[in-house]
Amino acid sequence: MKAARYYGPGDIRVEQIPEPEPKNGQVKIKIAWNGICGTDLHAYLAPFVKFPTATVPNEITGETLPITLGHEFSGTIVGLGEGVDATVYTIGQAVCVETIFGCGKTDICSACRAGTRNLCRDINAIGIGGFGGGLAEYISVNKEHIHPLPGNISLEVGACLEPLAVAWYAVKKSKFKSGDRVLICGAGPIGIFLLKALRSFDPNTLIIICEPTELRREVSVQHGATLALDPTATDITATVLAATHGAGVDIAFDAAGVQQSMDTCLYSVKTRGLIVSVATWEQVPKVDMNLMLLREITVTATNSYTGIHPELVQAVASGRLSGIEDLVTARVPLEEVVERGIKALLNDKDKHVKILVHP
């Protein structure tokens, strides 16, 4: 089968590899769509945490480079391994995949024992640490990672549920309540999914987006942002304070992962406000601890997601979360994943929000 294989920064090759067959407890999926993630972009540019190397294998999968990329995908079931209940997992069923995995050593790992594999010290994901990936024609995955899609959720939307789960989880962990005023720094897919998740809980509260790219600001307004501001042209904190009568926002989400965005969050949040980091940081930020102390600001972070896919699937199926397909700005074949997928997102941010790949 065809698969996009990651050999290292700047080196992704679409090549033929053996088609996987489902092992005991696994389900084989014919992949329909795979979304390109910021993690894929980071890895294309430079060595990135959680990817194995050519000489050092992943501690869970035992795989070294190359690995098949892709951790945001959907597809249809085409095969069942031994030990899989055919009345629960049926051939032809549309599914999405919860790709996060931990070490699974429940005797020694408290996170895996508690069912919070996103907090396992060895956390990784299908398509990053190994176990196949969504940028291929087929994959076989353990049944507990599979979530059936109701008939009114398309496979394109199904491929967006993995990053949407990141945003949904962050909103839930923030304990956002109706009326809370919010700042979101960064309007890439995660930032816009944060916006959509927040709007599903409160359609009217103040939500301000901070984003330098014009297209993404426009999309943010279309999907419910009260204000969408360019940080290169606007004093974000001054605007936030004016919009909140000098108080600041209740919650600030950092979905950009750069020093400027963290600073903006710190100076824009109210006394005893909350900052939630949802981004992966290439460089560790500096945080003004004295400012946190004087204003009793809480800074926390969320790591991927855990245990929320059934609730999220229901929210999308019920229409509470809608318009997700409108965020897809390009659909490309697997053979063009680098030129029209990864490079397009790196070089043409003013043209794209979400790109899906069809193997």
Write the SSE topology:
Blueprint: E1 2-8, E2 11-16, E3 26-35, H1 38-45, E4 67-68, E5 73-80, E6 94-97, E7 100-101, H2 110-113, E8 124-125, E9 138-142, E10 146-148, H3 155-174, E11 182-185, H4 189-201, E12 207-210, H5 214-222, E13 227-229, H6 236-243, E14 249-254, H7 259-268, E15 269-277, H8 289-295, E16 298-301, H9 309-317, E17 328-333, H10 337-347, E18 354-358
Parallel strand pairs: 11-12, 11-14, 12-13, 14-15, 15-16, 17-18
Antiparallel strand pairs: 1-2, 1-4, 3-5, 3-9, 3-18, 5-6, 6-10, 7-8
Domain Enoyl reductase (ER): 8-357
Organism: Collybia nuda
Family: Belongs to the zinc-containing alcohol dehydrogenase family.
Overview of this protein structure:
Its cofactor is Zn(2+). Keywords: Metal-binding, Oxidoreductase, Zinc. GO terms for molecular function: oxidoreductase activity; zinc ion binding. It holds the Pfam family ADH_N. Belongs to the zinc-containing alcohol dehydrogenase family. The chain is α/β, with parallel strands linked by helices and about 350 residues long. It folds into 2 domains: about 1-150 and about 325-359, Medium-chain alcohol dehydrogenases, catalytic domain (Quinone Oxidoreductase, Chain A, domain 1, Alpha-Beta Complex), CATH 3.90.180.10; about 165-300, Rossmann fold, CATH 3.40.50.720. The protein is about 30% helix and about 25% strand. The protein is built from 10 helices and 18 strands. The protein has helices at about 40-45, 110-115, 155-175, 190-200, 215-220, 235-245, 260-270, 290-295, 310-315, 335-345; strands at about 1-10, 10-15, 25-35, 65-70, 75-80, 95, 100, 125, 140, 145-150, 180-185, 205-210, 225-230, 250-255, 270-275, 300, 330-335, 355-359. Strands 3, 5, 6, 9, 10, 17 and 18 form a 7-stranded mixed sheet that branches. A hairpin with a 2-residue loop joins strand 1 and strand 2 (about 10-15). Helix 3 packs across helix 4. The radius of gyration is 20 Å and the shape is globular. The mean pLDDT is about 95.
